[in-house]
Amino acid sequence: MESNAPTKPTPEAPTPPATPIPPASPSPNEPNFFQRFMNRFQAWIRDNPRRAATWGIAILLILLSLVIRAPQPHVALSGEPLLPGGWFTNTMLTTLIVDILLLLTAFLVGARMQLVPSGLQNLIEAVIEYLYGLAEGVAGQRAATFFPWAATIFFFVLLSNYSGMLPGVGSIGYFHYADEPHATQMAGKLAMADGKLLLAEEGAPHFVPLFRAPSADLNTTFALAIATMVMVQVHGVRSLGVGYFRKFWNTSGQGFMKGINIFVGILEAISEVARILTFAFRLFGNIFAGEVVLATMAFLVTFLIPLPFYALEVLVGAVQALVFAMLSLVFFTMATISHGHDDHGEAHH
Questions:
Q1: What's the rounded Cα separation, in Å, for the pair 319 and 157?
Q2: What residues does 184 pair with on adjacent strands?
Q3: Which residues, 6 or more positions from 158, have their beta carbon under 8 angstroms from its beta carbon?
């Protein structure tokens, strides 16, 4: 007889623990991390040879900057004498070189003038055509009269600005031991000697560069500014006659208006002097500051890092030359405009 009673479940046997699998030992022929990195690096060099060469040269230059150091920045507000007496300075020497280069360029372009320009003639004609278009926009029909002076200023200032970025300018020179009793020097700090600002060490010789950018000398920029403002007066007298000077001392009018006209004339005279200052210090400040920045960056990191600052100075040098030339044109044009004496001015046109 079959029984219907439930059967008791039999207990399951416990599962034995899994045996840990030992990690696979690296094959003796499998490359390690350093070898894999070197393989990838070599493959990248093979695939990108030019880029690899560029990066290699850049890294090499930065490493060389730690070994090859540039001299301390030489800072002076004016040119330094090269001959006894102090009349011939390093700025004058560079100015003569710039003048000779301008004359040689003009001679070479003029001697080989062609109907279809090419090379240097094409470049010079393109620059002159662009400048003359600007001059016509500023001076109108008088552009032909003012343009020679303005273009000469532009090319001279441009070459003067760029001369400071040439190798050897500011770095080739000789050492001079300062024997002036009124020279004050402080070790490792800015010092004054004969009105010049320089970085000097106590008892150290004073470095005098043979060449220096003319635009970085305040004497040169003042000479340009004074010559330009003298030509402003010349063009004013040629266009308006002696009556041109009435704008500086205008006694026309009655009563209160007479006093106003006299006051305005005095302001006109002051503005003529102020133009000389703004002309000189604008050009000098920009070029002098750029010279100091380039010298400082080269002193900190000799190679590669100063390159962006050189590119910036190329732009600043061209802009300052153009600004000086355009302001000259503006002042020439303003001087030929009659101040309430149209009949007299037209008689001298």
A1: 10
A2: 192
A3: 317, 318, 321
DSSP output for 142-197: GHHHHHHHHHHHHHHHHHHHHHTTSTTTTTSEEEE----TT-B--TTEEEEETTEE
Distance (Å, whole) CA 319 – CA 329: 15
CB contact at 8 A, 170 and 207: no
Q: Where are the alpha helices (DSSP H) in the chain?
A: 33-47, 49-65, 90-111, 120-139, 143-163, 218-240, 256-300, 307-335, 342-347
- 262 CB-near residues (< 8 Å, 6+ apart): 249, 250, 251
With the C-alpha atoms ordered 225, 164, 107, 139, is the resulting torsion angle positive or negative? negative
For the beta carbon of residue 283, count every other beta carbon within 10 angstroms: 25
Confidence of residue 16 (pLDDT cuts 50, 70, 90): low
**Is residue 276 within 8 Å of residue 269, measured between CB atoms?**
no
Kindly report, residue by residue over 219-231, the tens digit of the pLDDT: 899 999 999 999 9
User: In this structure, which amino acid lies at residue 106?
Assistant: A
What is the residue type of 42?
Q
Residues 87, 95: Cα–Cα separation, whole Å: 14
Q: Which two tokens stand for residue 315?
A: 């732009």
Report how far residue 254's alpha carbon sits from residue 243's, in angstroms, rounded to the nearest whole number.
Answer: 20
Global pTM exceeds 0.85: no
Contact 217, 79 (CB under 8 A): yes
User: Is the pLDDT assigned to residue 12 strictly greater than 80?
Assistant: no
Please name every residue paired with 198 in a beta bridge, in sequence order, or none if there are none.
Answer: 191
Within 8 A by CB and 6+ apart from 266, the residues are 248
Residue spans of the domains in the chain: they are 90-172+210-347
Cα–chain center distance at 69: 23
Q: What is the C-alpha to C-alpha distance for residues 14 and 112, in angstroms, rounded to an integer?
A: 108
Consecutive H or E run containing 206: strand 206-209
